[in-house]
From TrEMBL:
The gene coding this protein: Micu3
Protein's cellular compartments: Mitochondrion inner membrane; Mitochondrion intermembrane space
SUPFAM superfamilies: EF-hand (SSF47473)
GO biological process per UniProt: calcium import into the mitochondrion; mitochondrial calcium ion homeostasis
Designated name of the protein: MICU3 protein
Domain EF-hand: 105-140, 343-378
CDD domains attached to this UniProt entry: EFh_MICU3 (cd16175)
GO MF terms held by the record: calcium ion binding
């Protein structure tokens, strides 16, 4: 694959943005299929670009088996799992999409996800049921894929899925009106037993041709015979959210217990479509001249709230329909009522200082919800680099720490 990389570069032209990002960060190839390592995945969701130019390294059967042999069981999972595995793991494209979904969904949604996999209702998920995910995401991807040279598209599918696919198989919908807006919606809405029966048959067909991955071994054991219960599934998803947030927080804290309010603003705006980010940063600098800092608990609670943004949006829309903006007390109350998350007064004040562009100490639907909906797309699209200004106080603090 390394030798033929130049011949495959033009496949990028036929890939969707999600496929392009996966191909850009993936570093492994096995029998023609591309894989990420756990380190690659962390890079893909926390960095603008790979730290080093990626070359797809071909794995031998022996190397893959050794990696899978060293994969810990699900009961040994932790919020450092991906960092501990580092380069010793393989993650497929469909698993990449699944992991991205986890990062942007509320804890309450974890039960929905589990129930979607648990097609026989025995409150346990086996490997075959989990492989249904492979087909759901594949079919959803085919609805989104770029049109063009069908031969190139077939080569790209082989790279991403490890086998050729037919655009007419499974998911027999009668029109585009039935196509949900996201992968998570596809999973959530695909509840009919008839649909799952079709998907399960297809999963049987392809499972024999697919290689095991780190995630499959982690969930279902080295022989693939174990079953996954909800508690372990929930713990894995919660740990992954926590791990990515820890990595983002630590990348700005430089070993301190807090990050600056300005750094917090950088992290929030980093994933959005905001054109003039400098105005938001300048607005915050003027409004919060004295740096107090954001703790990790505050940081984590805010992103837990963002993962419940759909429920909070309903409350915000009520204010919007009444042509009312929302103050800080109302904001805190609406967050708690809609999501069950308690935000500190300082964190709420910081959010207002960032997004309250007209400085009336009120937050409108347009000022906050519209921007934060972009933030939820995370690794599903590329990052927009933000020029990073540093306050004098931040410089002093980081200089002292470096000594």
């Amino acid at each position: 694959v390394t030798e033929n990389r130049s011949d495959l570069e033009d496949l990028h032209l036929y890939a969707t943005p999600r496929e392009q990002r996966f191909r850009r960060f993936a570093s492994l190839e096995y029998e023609g299929q591309l894989y990420m390592t756990p380190y690659d995945f962390i890079q893909a969701v926390t960095s603008d670009e790979p730290k080093h130019a990626k070359k797809w390294r071909s794995l031998s059967k022996q190397e893959l088996n050794q990696i899978l042999m060293e994969t810990p069981p699900v009961w040994k999972g932790s919020s450092k799992l991906f960092r501990n595995l580092n380069e010793k793991g393989v993650i497929s494209y469909t698993e990449y999409l699944f992991l991205l979904c986890i990062l942007t969904k509320p804890h309450a949604g974890f039960r929905i996800a589990f129930n979607m996999f648990d097609t026989d209702g025995n409150e346990m998920v086996d490997k075959k049921e989990f492989l249904v995910l492979q087909e759901i995401f594949r079919k959803k991807n085919e609805k989104r894929e770029k049109r063009g040279n069908e031969e190139k598209r077939a080569m790209l599918r082989l790279q991403l899925y490890g086998y050729h696919t037919s655009t007419n198989s499974v998911l027999k919908t009668e029109g585009e009106d039935l196509v949900p807006r996201s992968y998570w919606d596809t999973l959530r809405r695909s509840t009919s037993q008839a649909l799952f029966s079709d998907l399960a048959e297809r999963a049987d067909d392809i499972s024999s041709s697919l290689s095991d991955t780190t995630l499959l071994v982690h969930f279902f054991g080295k022989k693939g015979k174990a079953e996954l219960n909800f508690e372990d599934f929930y713990r894995f998803m919660d740990n992954l959210q926590t791990e990515v947030l820890e990595i983002e927080f630590l990348s700005y804290s430089n070993g301190m217990n807090t990050i600056s309010e300005e750094d917090f603003a950088h992290i929030l705006l980093r994933y959005t479509n905001v054109e003039n980010t400098s105005s938001y940063l300048e607005n915050m600098r003027c409004s919060i001249p004295e740096e107090k800092g954001i703790t990790f608990e505050e940081f984590r609670s805010f992103f837990q709230f963002l993962n419940n943004l759909e429920d909070f949006t309903i409350a915000m829309q009520m204010y919007n329909f009444a042509s009312r903006s929302i103050g800080q007390d109302e904001f805190k109350r609406a967050v708690y009522v809609a999501t069950g998350v308690k935000l500190s007064a300082h964190l709420v004040n910081t959010v207002f200082k960032i997004f309250d562009v007209d400085r009336d100490d009120q937050l409108s639907y347009k000022e906050f919800i519209g921007i934060m909906k972009d933030r939820l797309n995370r690794g599903f699209r590329g990052y927009k680099p933000i020029q990073r200004y540093t306050t004098f106080k931040s410089c002093v603090r980081k200089e002292l720490y470096s000594r």
